[in-house]
Structure formats: structure tokens, C-alpha cells
Design goal:
The chain is mainly alpha-helical and 159 residues long. Helices cover 77% and strands 0% of the residues. The two termini are 28 Å apart. 30% of the residues are buried.
Length: 159
């Protein structure tokens, strides 16, 4: 006999909504790792694991894939007129907008600041520590993530 905690965990991970969200994220990150490898951006297994676990930005958007997969699975499970679906839809829109707009803009600004800081440090012999350059997403990366999440969730929902 399983403990109540194990039963709750089993119910969670066997939920089609959970599986749709998880596999939408997982496959997007896996594709991102493969694409980076094929483009020569990763050199070994350590780089590939780092891309899989930590990389933001790139093709496809795992943010967009995850939230689209969740919203789609919730729509199938609870109906598109349910409060839960509406919340997931707006939450997903916010995440996608952030991945496409705010994070991309801040990443571009960080790149410009780093170029300026390095140039000033070179010219004036100053110490400069670059700021972190967070990668946002382009429209094609977000679009592929949305399509991927939708079809994965549809597949899990129609099983």
C-alpha cells in the first residue's frame, strides 16, 4: 500500500494537464539543445546539459510552449469557458509577451551596456564587470513554441 504522499504525487504526474505542460517544456528544451548542437553552439555533453537545463532564449521558446500547453490542456479538460482556462490564457499571454518583449529588450540593452562599458574600460583603463545578458525571444521562436505546446497538449488531451 502506498503512502498518501506517494498517491498525491502519482495523481499529479499522471494528470494530462501536468503531462501536457511538462512535455511541452521538455520537448522545447530538447529541441533547443539539438538546434544549438547542430549550429555548433555547444561542444560537449556538459554544454548540452547546460543548454537543456538553464538556457533562456533560442529556438523554440520553452516559455511559450509550456504556457500554451497548459492553457490548451486546461481548455480541453475544463472547457474554454471555465475560470481556470481564462486564467491560464491570460497568464500565458503575459508570459509570452514578457518573453518576446521585455526580456528581449532588456537583453539588447545589456549587450549595448556591455559594449559601452568594455570600450570605456579599454580607453580609460578602468575596471568593468559586464552585466548579465538575458536572452529574450524573437517572434519565430515564440511562434514555434506556441505551435509545439498546442499540438503536444492536444495529443495528450485526445488520448
Amino acid at each position: 500500500m502506498r503512502s498518501p504522499a506517494v498517491n498525491y504525487l502519482y495523481v499529479l504526474v499522471s494528470s494530462r494537464v501536468f503531462l501536457a505542460g511538462f512535455f511541452s517544456w521538455f520537448l522545447a528544451q530538447l529541441l533547443k539543445m539539438v538546434i544549438d548542437y547542430l549550429r555548433g553552439r555547444t561542444r560537449g555533453s556538459r554544454d548540452m546539459v547546460s543548454v537543456f537545463v538553464w538556457k533562456t532564449g533560442g529556438m523554440p521558446s520553452s516559455h511559450s510552449s509550456l504556457v500554451t500547453g497548459l492553457a490548451t490542456a486546461i481548455g480541453f479538460r475544463h472547457g474554454v469557458n471555465s475560470t481556470l482556462f481564462i486564467m491560464a490564457l491570460f497568464y500565458g499571454g503575459l508570459i509570452i509577451r514578457d518573453a518576446l518583449g521585455v526580456r528581449r529588450s532588456s537583453g539588447l540593452q545589456a549587450q549595448a551596456l556591455n559594449r559601452l562599458g568594455l570600450e570605456l574600460s579599454r580607453r580609460m583603463d578602468l575596471s568593468f564587470s559586464p552585466v548579465k545578458e538575458v536572452s529574450g525571444h524573437t517572434l519565430p521562436e515564440v511562434t514555434v513554441g506556441i505551435v509545439l505546446g498546442f499540438f503536444i497538449a492536444t495529443g495528450f488531451s485526445l488520448l
